[in-house]
């Protein structure tokens, strides 16, 4: 048998049970019988059956109708075919209403019931294949997390597909919350290294004294507290991908070390002497103007050109507004299922505000908003009045005056930092974490924008 199907036959007449069992022996890997509903439920609890054939009239406290309900309550995917004597068609119709797949009248025509069983098992197989397909699609979406259909985003996806199969070093640039790590994971998942590890490290999250150990590892006794040998990110990512996020936060000495690794593919643990080989593909990312940092001498020019073999620019959510309804639908479905909430929808006026909003936090901000609304709003339809206050006064897209992009981005960044500081009660570490930037970057931006 191609599929390990099981059939349970339930009838109070021994001749019918044995006759059906012999006649259907080629249709299933195993066939069992039961004389009443209680025995059928016991056997059903012990072993899974894909198909149950049951008489409507059964002895005992439970009849065939109640058996149909109980079986489908236990396992909704089970296919139940009921058989009934002449004159009880109404009962068979009731069984269908309760979820039975089909009914066949007595006396039983073996050829007909075999045909119906084949049809039912084919139906079951197709259902199972569809469930598996949906699971693969959902899993693929969770792995890549890339959703978008606008021209700018399709260009990004096309470039990812072209570059993924190579070992070329990639530099991903884009604002915070645009999905740079998702792009990096897609590069890994679509590559020949997909069976290897994907190691992500946020370079802005470590003080300079610990960053070297985090990247390259350390030997026992190399510094106070180093009680055991620790492999660094370059070792952990062997035969895989190493994602260096916030690459512009890397201090000068670490920049020199990284450049040496990129040129020689070798490194040494902190406190060690053995030269180790690096076999990790390097993908880096930044939300800052790295060229400006190079011009100011704050980031090594030679390292920039070594990292920027293949540049990928991830558009902001403001640059892909036509994707917002698609993203909203995806996040709604995801969070309604995740939080076990009834499926919701957005009214036209609410969707218009979402499309017109500025979104300084980009897709991450939109995602968090949708999750909040799914959890807190009881209505099935979300209207514009239910949106947070910062979206209520949104100027429709295209109605505002045209301003330079740099001015727009800086104003949005300042506003986002102000809002985050206020929500985090001016706790700087919490604010930096909420904005997904390093504390050092937050201090720099607060000084730049005069925020105290």
TrEMBL record:
Keyword Transcription found: yes
Domain Response regulatory: 6-121
SMART domains listed in its UniProt record: AAA, REC
Keywords: Activator, ATP-binding, DNA-binding, Nucleotide-binding, Phosphoprotein, Transcription, Transcription regulation
Modified residues (4-aspartylphosphate): 55
One BP term from GO: phosphorelay signal transduction system
PROSITE patterns named in the record: RESPONSE_REGULATORY, SIGMA54_INTERACT_1, SIGMA54_INTERACT_3, SIGMA54_INTERACT_4
Stretches assigned to the Sigma-54 factor interaction domain: 146-375
CDD domains xref list: AAA
Name the UniProt record assigns to this protein: Sigma-54 dependent transcriptional regulator
Source organism per UniProt: Blastopirellula sediminis
Gene Ontology MF: a single term: sequence-specific DNA binding
Alphabetical list of Pfam families matching this protein: AAA_lid_14 (PF25601), HTH_8 (PF02954), Response_reg (PF00072), Sigma54_activat (PF00158)
